[in-house]
């Protein structure tokens, strides 16, 4: 039932999809959209549904895991550590979810942990935890790049470059050896610009979930990100 368990180094972070049942036309459509998006180049999927109870969420996660079986595409679940542990899925948490040290302690070693970050102080805290012996998260989600209606609990847009930007935070994360993806307002309008930063990939929600053709939408984004010349982030 569950997808394979690649290490962070084996994952293609170039295009990361976060699901949204409302944008996708309902929960029953999510697994099908994921399947189409993977055909277009999505290399990582995160299942997010804030209103379902754990049992119903686990059923949906199992459906998406079945779609991804054999593809090599890892499935993360958003803020459902019990579901992640029970189904053997990777976990993504935000700053206001389960504490990162607690999540790392509870999550089996073969499962990856993602963490949302929006400023340098949060990476500084990670640095302290890592220095104290904690295994670092496997990936950071940096954003929002631009303010977006799909995530309304953020105070400011980071922008692509400049102090405190996605690029700035991605370079900081690389000092800890952690890859990152840019999320929030990511589209074909800024995918090429983001390729020229230190992020390992772009993370989208509406750009694929609300698309008439998720395969084509994913392919367009993936092509823009992977075929744009990038500067050395070091």
Automatic annotation (TrEMBL):
Alphabetical list of InterPro entries matching this protein: Aldolase_TIM, ThiamineP_synth_sf, ThiamineP_synth_TenI, TMP_synthase
Keywords recorded for this protein, A-Z: Magnesium, Metal-binding, Thiamine biosynthesis, Transferase
Organism: Corynebacterium kalidii
Binding site for Mg(2+): 79, 97
A molecular function (GO) term: magnesium ion binding
Residues involved in 2-[(2R,5Z)-2-carboxy-4-methylthiazol-5(2H)-ylidene]ethyl phosphate binding: 148-150, 185, 205-206
Sequence similarity: Belongs to the thiamine-phosphate synthase family.
GO terms, biological process: thiamine biosynthetic process; thiamine diphosphate biosynthetic process
UniProt KW Transmembrane helix keyword: no
Pfam hit, one: TMP-TENI
Thiamine phosphate synthase/TenI domain location: 15-208
Pathway listed: Cofactor biosynthesis; thiamine diphosphate biosynthesis; thiamine phosphate from 4-amino-2-methyl-5-diphosphomethylpyrimidine and 4-methyl-5-(2-phosphoethyl)-thiazole: step 1/1
Cofactor mode of binding and number, as noted: Binds 1 Mg(2+) ion per subunit.
Cofactor(s) the record lists: Mg(2+)
Record's keyword annotation contains Magnesium: yes
Catalytic activity, EC: 2.5.1.3
Reactions listed under catalytic activity: 2-[(2R,5Z)-2-carboxy-4-methylthiazol-5(2H)-ylidene]ethyl phosphate + 4-amino-2-methyl-5-(diphosphooxymethyl)pyrimidine + 2 H(+) = thiamine phosphate + CO2 + diphosphate; 4-methyl-5-(2-phosphooxyethyl)-thiazole + 4-amino-2-methyl-5-(diphosphooxymethyl)pyrimidine + H(+) = thiamine phosphate + diphosphate; 2-(2-carboxy-4-methylthiazol-5-yl)ethyl phosphate + 4-amino-2-methyl-5-(diphosphooxymethyl)pyrimidine + 2 H(+) = thiamine phosphate + CO2 + diphosphate
Binding site residues for 4-amino-2-methyl-5-(diphosphooxymethyl)pyrimidine: 46-50, 78, 116, 151
Cellular component GO terms, alphabetical: cytoplasm
Function: Condenses 4-methyl-5-(beta-hydroxyethyl)thiazole monophosphate (THZ-P) and 2-methyl-4-amino-5-hydroxymethyl pyrimidine pyrophosphate (HMP-PP) to form thiamine monophosphate (TMP).
Superkingdom of the organism of origin: Bacteria
The protein's name in its UniProt record: Thiamine-phosphate synthase
